[in-house]
Design a protein that fits this description.
The chain is mostly helical. It is about 90% helix and about 0% strand. The longest helix is centred in the middle third of the chain and has 74 residues.
Length: about 110
């Protein structure tokens, strides 16, 4: 008796039902892929901005480091210039010894005259 209520389906009708089911599933799948693509594109854009900002920050830090290095170089050059005009202790001691010797000789010579 259950067979009386059921309608027999032809192969063409079954093919149409299956085709409609696949088309509906295809549309849902396409919509999901499009939504995933948009989320992925958004994440990629955000990541690209983050990387770009990171490079900009590193560039600014590198500029600061270059300035610091230039200041250090200038300070070193000033120190080198001052050191070039300084007499070494050994040279100063030698000259002082000679001056003392001359002073001793001059005193003797002055007393004789």
């Amino acid at each position: 008796m259950e067979n009386k209520n059921k309608k027999e389906i032809t192969i063409n009708e079954l093919a149409q039902i299956v085709k409609a089911g696949f088309e509906a599933a295809d549309k849902r799948t396409d919509a999901k892929f499009e939504a995933a693509d948009k989320r992925t594109d958004s994440k990629i854009e955000t990541l690209a901005q983050m990387v770009g900002n990171g490079f900009n920050e590193m560039g600014a830090r590198m500029d600061e480091m270059r300035q610091d290095i230039n200041l250090l170089k200038q300070g070193q050059e000033r120190i080198e210039m001052r050191l070039n005009n300084v007499v070494y202790r050994s040279e100063l001691d030698a000259v002082l010894g000679r001056v003392q010797t001359l002073e001793k000789q001059m005193k003797i010579a002055l007393k004789k005259n």
